Amino acid sequence: MKKTKVSVLRKIFDLRHWRIATKLLVFMLLLSLVPLVISTMLSSRTSSDIIIKQTRISLSRLAISTAERIEQFLIDNHYVIRMAASDPNVIAFLSAATEEEQAGQQATIDTVVANLLAADPALDLVGFYDLEGTVVSHNNPDIVGRSYLFRDYVQSALGGEQFTSGIQVGWTTDTPGINASAPVVVDDEVIGAIATRIQGIFITEILKSSLAAESEDITAEERQAMDVYLLDEYRIIVGHSDDETEWLYHSLGEITDQQVLDEIESVRLLGGDCPNMLPVCDPNTKEVRLPQAIPAAQPLGDHLLRAMVAGKSGSFRYCRPASIEEPLTEDGECNGAWHVVGYAPVLDPFRVNRYTQQPIHLFMVVVDMPEEIFLSSITQLQTQGLIILALMAALALVASTLISRTLARPLGKLAQAAQRVESDEPFEPEDIDNVCQQGDEVGNLARVFSAMVVALRARMAELRTIYAVGQKISESVDLQETMRDIMLSISDIMRFDTGEICLYDKLTKKLSCEIAMDGSTKASDLACNRTYRTDQGAVARLFEQESGVLIHDVLSAEMADPSRNWGGVQPRSYIGVPLKDKNQIIGTIEFVDRHANCFTEANLRVLESIAIQAAIAIQNAREVQLRENRLKQEIQQLRIEIDEMKKERQVAEIVETDYFQSLRKKAQDLRGEKSSE
Questions:
Q1: CATH class of the domain defined by 86-203
Q2: What is the pairing mode between strands 176-186 and 292-294?
Q3: Enclosing H/E stretch for 560
Q4: Concatenated DSSP letters for 113-166?
Q5: Parallel/antiparallel/unpaired status of strands 292-294 and 250-252
Q6: 235-251: per-residue pLDDT in tens?
Q7: Reduced to 3 states, what is the DSSP secondary structure of residue 664?
Q8: DSSP 517
Q9: ∠ at Cα 509 (503, 510), nearest 5°?
Q10: According to the CATH classification, is domain 52-61+206-262+290-376 in 3.30.450?
């Protein structure tokens, strides 16, 4: 029973037992679909890699430019603060010995504050602090008299350092801002501090404007899908281009370090909440607001925090969760959508780490984009590939069905049907579409991508041309016909005035012109009968570097060879490649034109590729010619030997005849009679 099953299976998988229609269907499907599937997969993968790499670079560049704008913005604002700190009126106010003296100068300080707010619209709060950290003057009078020594910007300024904080939510105003401070110094002694708040909305506007600016790297569609946000040293998102995003003031992953949590609480980084969820309350009754975590964003937060500490920019791929409560999966699966971010640190313009003397980074600018946006063109390409596959399968099915009908005819008809199938043109897939769409807002970017696609198509066209030329020149084994086919093939793809193929003679160390062609008429001189030295002109460089030579202007390059005749053409442009066999130069292919800058690098690249096959074809033709000459000599020698053998055979046949034998007997008898006498 087991042997019977094995024999049945063997019969099923044995092609000899298949119906011919089934064989045709299977083979046609394989021949038509397998190459298409492979080419589609390779092109999709290659295009995907190129697009992902370019997008990562573009996002990183956008992050870097945004970070530089924020840095410059902070520097400009700090210069204003430093000028105010050196104002004589400010110095006099903080130097006052009594509160009455300060009160007498309050009007002057109010004028200084008004001028400061008018000069820098990014500022909304200006305060002055004594050495105890107490607010002695502020444009928000409600906080005058309170101690703000718990704020790091007050501590740093009273310690004699300029300070720029990260984005912090105001304890009183509950609005985001950057606290910047500077010491007020008299005779190298700190007498107080001035602190301002840069409104966070101005940082948000920088983030938004970075998405509105035109660029050559990012399309309008991609910009609409992007988010730009700021990450602080605690991996908390403190600024976002989308005011309504739920990610704002959340941390990327869990903050497990209790010391970090204590620090966030002590500096009141995110402001405070009123008791019982009241919208307004006395600031003294507020409770410190702590960040909520986005657990699934832990890998992104860890990576960005390491990059921020190292001060590095770059890109990263992560899974963006569908909701901020989504937990982090352990199996690596993505429960949301894959995104790619570009990031760059924002440098503190004035401070360095007092222990390591390394720069301090205030934020990390993060540009976030869904992966599906910039890979949409690849998805379209794959969809088109599936449609083409379905069409090819249908065509193969129809063709196999039509051909199978002819199988009922005699076997002689089968060959005719096979020839018709063989001569049928195969289905060619459409050219790959542009990897992204062109938009009016980003025309420069569209041209860049368009140029990339044109270049890719040009390279493919070059390969097809080289293949076609190789096929053509390999069809002939006659040396002159082979060289003529080479020249004709090159004349179809490249413009020139005169071209020559020369072969190198190792004995004389000269080049002999074997064929010359007029590029305009394509008329060739099959016996040009000229020889050239290899140590003069462009040929000398060609032999020296053993690779292609392209000279845009022969006169300016001083490569003219007055001893060489180009059929009456005064050459201005020159292009030539060596013909090499086994790393030995056996000849050259050279072209000139009477106009300068006629040939391009693309011409040289194509010509070098053709030269590889041309050298093989010419060498094969020379060997065939040599074998023919040897064969002719051997045939001539064989003919001579055959003639000699024929003569010997004819003599032997005559000697063996009865008549000749009788004559021989008579001769012997006559000799016997003479001897007896």
A1: alpha beta
A2: unpaired
A3: none
A4: HHHHHHH-TTEEEEEEE-TTSBEEEESSGGGTT-B-TTSHHHHHHHTT--EEEE
A5: parallel
A6: 999 889 888 889 988 99
A7: helix
A8: E
A9: 50
A10: yes
Residue 312: the pLDDT is: 92
Tens of pLDDT, residues 512-564: 888 888 888 777 665 577 888 888 888 888 888 888 899 988 888 777 777 78
Element (H, E) at 189: strand 189-199
Q: What is the mean pLDDT of residues 251-275?
A: 85
Q: 546 to each of 516, 549, 608, how far by Cα in Å? A: 22, 9, 11
Integer Cα distance of 457 and 449 in angstroms: 13
Structure tokens at 205: 């506007």
DSSP 3-state of 336:
strand
Q: Which residue's structure tokens are 């045709």?
A: 24
The phi, psi pair for 162, rounded to 5°, reads -75, 150
Out of 3.30.950.10, 3.30.428.10, 3.40.50.2300, 3.30.450.40, the CATH code matching 470-627 is 3.30.450.40
Q: What would the two tokens of residue 74 be?
A: 């902070």
Q: What is the dihedral of CA 300, 302, 305, 306, to 10 degrees?
A: -120
Q: Is the dihedral of CA 447, 453, 459, 463 positive or negative?
A: negative
Say if residues 290 and 265 touch (Cβ distance below 8 Å).
Answer: yes
Query: Residue 17, SS3?
Result: helix
pLDDT exceeds 80 at position 288: yes
Task: Read off the pLDDT of residues 557-578 as tens digits, 9 standing for 90 and up.
Answer: 777 777 787 877 888 899 999 9
pLDDT tens digits for range 598-632: 898 888 888 888 888 888 888 887 777 777 777 77
